[in-house]
Amino acid sequence: MRVNGIASPLPEDPRTLLSDHLRHQLRLTGTHVGCEHGVCGCCTVLLDGKPVRSCLLLAVQAADHDVTTIEGLAPDTAALHPIQQAFHEAHALQCGFCTPGFVLAVKGLLDEHPDPTDEQIQEGISGNLCRCTGYANIRKAVRLAAAAR
Amino acid sequence: MKPAPFEYHAPTSVDEAVRLLGMLEDAKVLAGGQSLVPLLNFRLARPAHVVDINGIPALDRIYERDGGVAVQALVRQSDAQRSELLQKLCPLVPEALKHVAHQVIRNRGTVVGSIAHADPAAELPAVILALQGSVRALGPGGTRDIPAESFFMGVLESALAPDELAVEVWFPAFTGPHGLREESRRHGDYAMAGVVRAGDRLALFGVAPTPVTADPNEPTRDLQPSADLEATPGFRKHLITAMTRELFAA
Ligand SMILES: Cc1cc2nc3c(=O)[nH]c(=O)nc-3n(C[C@H](O)[C@H](O)[C@H](O)COP(=O)(O)OP(=O)(O)OC[C@H]3O[C@@H](n4cnc5c(N)ncnc54)[C@H](O)[C@@H]3O)c2cc1C
Ligand code: FES
Ligand code: FES
User: Fold this and answer.
1) What domains appear along chain A, each with residue ranges and CATH number?
2) DSSP codes of every residue in B46-107
3) Which residue ranges have their beta carbon within 6 Å of ligand 1?
4) Count of domains in chain B?
5) pLDDT digit string (tens) for B99-157?
């Protein structure tokens, strides 16, 4: 599997979840884990460019695929990705626990709908839970990121 | 919480998958994993073997056959939702898919997996029942088509034998009056109750151990929904009556 563009060995035990493999073996702890049954969205990563739940994927299933985590989204260490920048500017996070999942889900949303309607934004973030912000600023960040494209 | 140990198999053809299913004791098919992996994570399922079908090439086609549309086992729900063929010939299917979980889940979850999983509160089993579609199963004895009416046996229980692989599902073309209504506490959740219309046919979900067909004029006759934290049986029946009226008024 390639993680953020770098070839990476697979875990030995096939029951290792991709989320755990990223966090424990690769030390990419930006992928957060909340519920481990697909409900909270914190663990969202990109698999071949599309957002998926890393807690519902066995790491071995990512063999021969590209995985992008929140650490691999920005072009370099100096600049944020436009979606990250928009979250920063719109104050779309408080504790930040949900943020990596939101950012990657929004990446998928904007790839599919570069100029999303309010309804598409609502729909696109409905699979991610945030216990802090009340979502208003997250919606604002999505609009900001779409405009910045 | 993590899955209990299992042996992992990744066949590269349907024949190899069926051979493995016939040979191995206590094996589970892994498709999109959006229902199976949560069960593994909570150790509610502890299969000895997992047969991952995701590496089988050319099993992700949506194509026309026998006056309808066949959807193969690796078609993701999000791709089916966007399929022009389904939109043209079986528009009820993409419409129903909007109600299945969330986009990120649909990117991985399969149409066939949702039907094989036979969750009584799921949308697609009720849709295939309303449309009178069928499931094509491949086993050691060959292929058989199982009509939707005899496919759903109980809660998470289907007519598939443990050594059978559902290779595709088939929906007859239908562009007459159709629709789906459901009520859930939060958007994207499984429904407390739902109704599907295909012409004069009505199927209900979330109100019995399997999806069931019903008389549109008397949709709650003989219905005994269960109670849980979200809804009482009476409320579920009320929802069915109200949503059926709405659906057939259109
Ligand atoms: C947060 C969340 C919310 C959800 N909300 C909804 C919802 O509102 N409505 C809804 O309908 N679903 C919902 N789902 C479930 C989702 O639609 C699943 O994708 C679907 O139920 C199962 O499809 P899968 O491809 O992921 O199957 P898997 O999880 O891989 O498999 C499910 C079961 O079916 C069997 N199976 C799968 N494919 C085959 C095959 N080809 N042949 C034989 N057996 C097979 C497996 O062995 C397993 O027992 C939700 C899931 C999550 C995580
Ligand atoms: S940890 Fe994966 S969705 Fe909650
Ligand atoms: S910022 Fe705290 S959970 Fe979203």
Assistant:
1) 2-73 (3.10.20.30), 82-148 (1.10.150.120)
2) --SEEEE-TT-TT---EEEETTEEEEETT-BHHHHHH-HHHHHH-THHHHHHTTSS-HHHHT
3) A 38-39; B 28-36, 38, 73, 100-101, 105, 109-110, 112-114, 116-117, 122-124, 160, 165-166, 188-190
4) 3
5) 999 999 999 999 999 999 999 999 999 999 999 999 999 999 999 999 999 999 999 99
